[in-house]
Write a structure and sequence with these properties.
This protein is mainly alpha-helical and about 700 residues long. The protein has 27 helices and no strands. The radius of gyration is 29 Å and the shape is globular.
């Protein structure tokens, strides 16, 4: 038998990896769930029925975000009931212009407020509005049968989705855990830049913060999928317990990486001619690569192999450190380097063991945190909605902005500007977002994607006349849309646009749809852009809130350390909850800064101060984290210094909370040289001095910012 050429083996391996990828497999399942009923009805019944069922399946599929089986059941029932109501009421009023306008106004207010309930329900609200728009565009003759066909498409889709989730409940968890491990490996790899004497430390910190946000998002995604799944969290579920332990270890590894904090300028100066910095960089790269291989295996749903490529490099670094320790005065720094490398290596081996050994060979610790406290619940109550019913609420402002923009867009559909002018309204609904920056960013992405998609659609319509080929291409573009939807919005629109153009061309035989699509998209984007200045909720005005939240989170985190040094017991769950709160507030701050950069230029000058505060806050939380796991430090002097650091942070909160410069001026400014910044040999003492120095730097930076803003 002839052997398969090497290049074909590589090709088939790549194709297999793509197929096994969660994004692609979900996209393929979703596409087939839409195409199969559409194709069957198109060839055996009426094309209008096929399109209606296809629209129902498409819109319902877009409400199906990753979650537990319970999440999917709740969302399927909610979306099907809501979609039936939306479809029938919109269809009944389709010929009554005034009532249709009022309906748009009411629906936009109601579903705009769904944002208060979280991403899942916000998405459902958006899809409900899009369905309303499609009903106006398709203009059904029989509202009841049309609504039932919409629901039928949704029922078929959710049956497939629920069956898949029931048969493979671990699929999404494995994929999310793999992404979390890969992002953690990227975070570890970014640490190597700090040992490069030629790199910019400030830029290194900003890159680290960017990766921190990504890691935090991935950790939250795994928590949401794993911890909220009661079946997987049962003590008797071996794989669920395995992944819970692995998640805990990955988060601990990330914490240990983040806790590595040196005076990098001093470190570089002390070790620049020793060759040790290059050796440490190589070790970090090897450790990151080993970690990424584990993540890739989970991500690609392949067998996880225990790989250890860093042992030899670690041994070489230890030999280098031993030689330098005998002749160098930087013994403390060298010892700390060795300890940190050993800790990372040990944690990495634990992750590998948890994911590769048999279940009865895994050593489960007795002090795992109480995972139920780490679940972020989505509260769907009237009291939550009631708190948003005021003009100070960004959610309420968004709902008002959306209603006004959609009413303007609806008015254009009444003009003789083309049969498919409802696309103007659809574009506004898709583009407009709660934040100014997000709206304009989505606006630009949609414009680029639509224009490129239109060009592709025009070329295909000119070259291809066979309807079967067109339908096959439409199916491929639909697959591309779903494959890129969670990865790259612009590319998803590039795929969606030619699919819609091809389908409408087949349905109507009208070539002018391409030009109409361009005009309607441009007009819709223009309305969305103009509406972004209506009742805006500027991110830059939230800077004090972001700063205060971060300082409070770090203060709570520092209090856990203070209590431990004072002899007050602290359990692992409360410590990890305090750590999680710090990471959450830092991520919100970072996201806010990025949104500020998308706002008008008048906000740009203030962002620099927030970047400096962000870097200092990361340094503070990292230094606090370096004490954990606790080493039973109970020293009176350490406790007193930590108490002083807490007082400094409390004074910082006073600066943030004060509303006038006069009251701010009453807060005494403490200079750095009043603090004892000597570097004693005792490691804990040195870390406490670092905490004091960073806390005071934060205080001074916030004080200066508040006075000059």
């Amino acid at each position: 038998m002839q052997r398969v050429p090497g290049y074909l083996q590589v090709f088939f391996k790549v194709v297999l990896q793509i197929i096994k990828n969660e994004y692609f497999s979900d996209a393929l399942r979703t596409t087939l769930s839409i195409i199969v009923p559409f194709a069957a009805l198109y060839y055996f019944t009426d094309p209008h029925i096929a399109i209606t069922v296809g629209v129902g399946a498409l819109l319902v599929s877009l409400t199906d975000s990753p979650g537990t089986l319970g999440d999917k059941v709740l969302m399927s029932v909610s979306s099907l009931c809501l979609f039936f109501f939306i479809a029938i009421i919109t269809a009944l009023l389709i010929k009554k212009v005034m009532l249709s306008g009022m309906l748009i106004l009411v629906f936009c207010m109601i579903f705009g407020l769904f944002t208060a309930f979280g991403k899942r329900w916000s998405l459902l609200g958006t899809m409900a509005l899009i369905l309303m728009t499609f009903v106006q565009g398709l203009r059904p003759v029989d509202p009841l049968s049309f609504s039932l066909y919409i629901v039928a498409g949704g029922v078929f889709y959710y049956l497939v989705s629920l069956v898949q989730t029931s048969l493979w409940p671990l699929s999404s968890v494995k994929h999310a855990l793999g992404e979390c491990i890969i992002s953690t490996s990227d975070f570890l790899r970014a640490k190597a830049a700090f040992y490069d004497a030629g790199s910019n430390l400030q830029q290194n910190y900003l890159q680290l913060i960017k990766l921190h946000n990504k890691v935090h998002d991935k950790q939250e995604q795994v928590r949401d999928l794993l911890l909220r799944n009661k079946s997987l969290m049962r003590n008797g579920h071996e794989q669920g317990q395995r992944y819970l332990l692995a998640l805990t270890q990955v988060i601990d590894l990330y914490e240990r990486i983040g806790a590595i904090q040196y005076d990098y300028e001093l470190l570089r100066e002390s070790l620049k001619d020793t060759g040790l910095l290059d050796a440490v960089t190589r070790v970090i790269g090897c450790l990151a690569n080993d970690l990424q291989l584990i993540g890739n295996a989970l991500y690609g749903k392949s067998k996880i192999k225990s790989i250890d490529t860093s042992a030899a490099d670690i041994q070489f670094v230890k030999q280098q450190i031993a030689k330098l320790s005998a002749t160098d005065n930087n013994t403390r720094i060298l010892n700390k380097l060795e300890i940190n490398i050993d800790e990372i290596y040990t944690l990495l081996r634990k992750i590998s063991t948890t994911l590769t050994f048999k279940f009865d060979q895994i050593d489960f610790p007795a002090d795992l945190p109480a995972y139920q406290f780490f679940i972020s619940a989505e509260l769907i109550t009237f009291s939550v909605l009631k708190t948003q019913l005021n003009f100070r609420s960004p959610v309420f402002r968004f709902a008002c902005r959306l209603s006004a923009a959609c009413l303007v867009a609806f008015s254009f559909t009444l003009l003789p500007v083309g049969y498919y002018s409802y696309w103007i309204l659809l574009t506004v609904i898709v583009v407009i977002k709660p934040g100014f920056g997000l709206t304009n960013k989505r606006n630009l992405q949609r414009l680029k994607g639509s224009l490129l998609g239109v060009a592709i659609g025009m070329i295909l319509l000119l070259l291809i006349g066979n309807i079967t080929v067109k339908l096959m291409l439409a199916g491929l573009f639909l697959l591309g849309y779903f494959a890129y939807l969670r990865i790259n919005y612009m590319l998803s629109i590039v795929s969606l646009t030619p699919m819609i153009i091809i389908c409408l061309n087949i349905y109507t035989g009208n070539q002018s749809i391409v030009l109409e699509r361009v005009v309607d998209t441009l007009l819709g984007c223009a309305i969305a852009f103009g509406a972004s200045y209506l009742f805006p909720s500027w991110e830059i005005r939230k800077h004090s809130m972001y700063i205060g939240d971060v300082v409070r989170a770090n203060l709570s985190y520092l209090k856990k350390l203070h209590d431990q040094t004072a002899g007050i017991p602290s359990d692992i769950t409360s410590f990890k909850l305090a750590r999680k709160e710090v990471y959450t507030k830092l991520t919100i701050l970072s996201s806010g800064i990025q949104n500020m950069l998308l706002e008008p230029k008048r906000a740009q000058s203030q962002v620099k101060h927030l970047y400096e505060f962000e870097v200092l806050s990361h340094q503070l939380s990292s230094t606090i984290a370096s004490f954990f796991p606790f080493s039973n430090v109970q020293l009176v002097e350490v406790t007193q210094q930590l108490n002083r650091a807490m007082e400094i942070l409390k004074e910082t909160l006073m600066i943030v909370d004060d509303s006038t410069n006069e009251s701010k001026a009453t807060v005494p400014a403490i200079s750095y040289n009043q603090l004892d910044l000597n570097h004693p040999d005792h490691v804990e003492q040195h870390k406490v001095q670092q905490i004091l120095r960073i806390a005071e730097a934060i205080r001074q930076q916030v004080y200066q910012y508040s006075c000059c803003k």
